[in-house]
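Example S7 (structure tokens).
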């Protein structure tokens, strides 16, 4: 294994652990029947939705997932092509 492969493996493992932790920290989304009944969306929570901790955790999870996918593909290519 080259140094690049070792670094990519370590980054891949760190991202995998971060995804698991971020996923477990997030709260469940229990809206129940209110979604079907047409609950109001003019609340303060919906207006400030992007600034809440829940939304920040979702964004961090998406970013980690995208980075994990990219690093995994690059790692596969580096091992398969023997860079």
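Recovered sequence:
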């Amino acid at each position: 294994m080259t140094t690049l492969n070792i670094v990519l493996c370590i980054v891949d493992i760190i991202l995998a652990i971060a995804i698991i932790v971020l996923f477990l920290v997030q709260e469940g989304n229990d809206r129940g029947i209110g979604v079907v009944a047409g609950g109001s969306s003019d609340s303060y929570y919906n207006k400030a939705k992007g600034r809440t901790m829940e939304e920040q955790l979702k964004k961090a999870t998406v970013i980690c997932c995208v980075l994990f996918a990219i690093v995994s593909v690059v790692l596969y290519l580096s091992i398969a092509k023997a860079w």
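Notes on this example. The mean pLDDT is 84.
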